[in-house]
Design goal:
By secondary structure, the chain is an alpha/beta fold. It folds into 2 domains: 82 residues, D-Maltodextrin-Binding Protein, domain 2 (3-Layer(aba) Sandwich); 117 residues, 3-Layer(aba) Sandwich (D-Maltodextrin-Binding Protein, domain 2), CATH 3.40.190.10. It is built from 8 helices and 7 strands. Strands 1, 2, 3, 4, 5, 6 and 7 form a 7-stranded mixed beta sheet that branches. α3 links the parallel β2 and β3. α3 packs across α8.
Length: 227
């Protein structure tokens, strides 16, 4: 919804023109993980290390244009660092090389990274959300670690066709918000390291437009192409 218009030159839909937001469902933050032998023990130290060795520190992604790729390019843009992208066909082979030390850094979904961090396979430097996660409260945010304003998470929402009557949209929104307060639903979201969204209906459209602009800039400056 927010990234594809910048990644693909030909898209069959326009996320603003063709759809009406109904509700945001959940947010999923990433963890910044590194090989256990990397000297950097914090985001600040990672930035210092990367600046002392421009282009010599490699970072992994699960593929060109993926969230792992985009989040790291945003990090590079905001910190003035230059790390080298190594794209893999999925997260599993990327982790294999991060664990072995062939690649040093990986921004990945908390749901995939958390078990490896707790198992001692990789080390977590920070979480990419605005606030710390109750699932790993000792892991600081990237923003509090020296990159003010940095935030990245994958988000999921519900949209309807553009001309859906407003009363129907509002009713659907209310039902979704009600469902997201159900303890069973919240537990299922938490089990995948997510956080149920509380975004009001009126804020969704401005949020998506801001996301479109944000990622258009990142994609342009990083020269990312997938087609």
């Amino acid at each position: 919804m927010a990234v594809n218009p910048s990644l693909f030159s030909k898209l069959a839909y326009d996320p603003v023109r063709d759809f009406t937001p109904v509700a945001m469902l959940a947010d999923y933050p990433f963890l910044v993980v590194v090989n256990n032998d990397l000297p950097a023990k914090s985001i600040k130290e990672l930035i210092e290390l990367a600046k002392s060795k421009p282009s010599q520190i490699n970072y992994a992604s699960a593929g060109n244009g993926t969230g792992q790729h985009l989040s790291m390019e945003l990090f590079k843009m905001m910190t003035g660092t230059n790390l080298t992208h190594v794209a893999y066909r999925g997260a599993q082979p990327a982790y294999s090389d991060v664990i072995s030390g062939r690649v040093s850094v990986f921004f990945d979904n908390m749901s995939g990274a958390m078990g490896l961090v707790k198992g001692g396979k990789v080390r977590a430097l920070a979480i990419t959300s605005k606030q710390r996660s109750p699932l790993m409260p000792d892991v600081p945010t990237v923003a509090e670690s020296g990159v003010p304003g940095f935030e990245y998470h994958t988000w999921f929402g519900l949209w309807a066709p553009k001309n859906t009557p407003r009363p129907i949209v509002e009713q659907l929104h209310a039902e979704v918000r009600k469902a997201l307060t159900d303890p069973a639903v919240r537990d299922k979201v938490a089990a995948t390291a997510g956080e149920p969204s509380t975004m009001p209906l009126a804020e969704i459209d401005p949020f998506v437009k801001a996301e479109l602009a944000k990622w258009a800039e990142v994609v342009k400056r990083a020269g990312i192409k997938v087609d």
